[in-house]
Amino acid sequence: MPDAAPLESALLRRLRFSAATAAFQVEGARRADGRDRSIWDDFVETPDRVRDGSTAEPGPDSYHRFYEDVALLAGLGVDQYRFSISWVRVLADGAPNLRGIAYYDRLVDALLGAGVTPAPTLYHWDLPSALEAEGGWLNRATAEHFAEYVEVVAAALGDRVRHWYTINEPVSTTLQGYAIGELAPGRTLLFDSLPTVHHQLLAHGLAVPILRAHGAERIGIVNNHTQVLPASADPADQQAAYLYDLIHNRVFADPVLLGRYPDLEPLGVTMPVHDGDLALISAPCEVYGVNYYNPTTVAACEGPVPFEVVPTPGAPTTGFGPLWPIVPEALTAFLVDAHERYGAALPPIAIAENGASFPEPAHTEERLDDDARISYLRGHVAAVREAIRAGVRVDEYTVWSLLDNFEWAEGFTQRFGLVHVDMDTGRRTPKASYSWYRALIEEARA
Fold first, then answer.
1. Domain boundaries, the chain
2. How far apart are the C-alpha atoms of 131 and 121, rounded to whole Å?
3. What is the pLDDT of residues 154-184, one digit of tens each?
4. Residue pair 86/123 in contact by the 8 Å Cβ criterion
5. What are the distances in angstroms from CA 123 to CA 1, 244, 428?
6. Is 121:83 a contact under the CB 8 Å cutoff?
7. Does 353 participate in catalysis according to the annotation?
8. Catalytic residue at 169?
9. Of residues 27, 132, 151, 169, which has the active-site annotation?
10. How does pLDDT run across 363-398, given as a tens digit for each residue?
11. Fold for domain 9-445?
């Protein structure tokens, strides 16, 4: 197993270490406790949407096996657990579902009992189907419904939960869910999808004062970010990279951090902003969440979308293939660029997801020696260290994922876990990367 040291523990000592999952990906129990339907239930039941035809059921079945997962977290020695709360388990037909809420009560209490801080994410893509039928995130009213849901969750858990994330990866919902249809709800609106950006950010803004009223001490949104690289020095590729950075990074970060949208005229887009929206969206928070997996190389192309993502020359790749290059130093570059771009407006950063999928067997009787994952994680922890050395305030590093899980449209074909899960039996088997991460945390605390 690759050695955890030396990664200069003095520079990493400031970090909270965490691992993450998301409700739809690990809970299973779709028909338990009165849970309602989400857009992901609809998506997976549509033929040919999910690569292997799987439906996330039962998957890791964390709904019934969460005590095992809490024990795994305690064994890692992590400071906190970033999990998500299922909107459709908490509300059914728009009303509080006490049986669903009770599941999260049990989970929070188990985490606290194990010395692990709960850090829930309130939205990780499981929009109620009934709201999608009314326009989903294209409809401003969805943000208002989200605020009602947040009130229910905060009232139930706010006496024990002090750390919250609001919206996870709005860029994925907008671009993959509404623009090109790769993810739920599977719509193909191209640039007409962009109002969903504003309504998701508004949902974040509406959630913050509700969480504050229930005792929250640390709140942040989580954006998926990437370092954008032009395919060449050609001005057309440079412009394509600029536009991709605009639509993937800046349109999500600028309103939260600066209280304004970047100039979207090159895309022919006007956001549906009402008076007071941007003040809500940009209300100060204690943390800014960054999910980071890879840089993105972009080239110009013809057609309604003037850019395309292309392979990054010379870079190894993860199990997702040529568009998921492994370039740890690009994480350092992104963090330094953000620090320079946003200055004092940028709160401390949490790396809220970072990880890699590689080909692995569905079943195993022994620990998997996942050296490729260890190398990926080690390189990216070192990239965080270099960003800290350059003056960037990073307070948290989170591995995606604690468990092998349902990887959305890829089904069970992509495995990100520190812990192998047999999806037939639910058996959990820690991989070599689990031991590596535990050793890293111990070294950082030494």
1. 9-445
2. 19
3. 999 999 999 999 999 999 999 999 999 999 9
4. no
5. 36, 25, 26
6. yes
7. yes
8. yes
9. 169
10. 998 999 999 999 999 999 999 999 999 999 999 999
11. TIM Barrel (3.20.20)
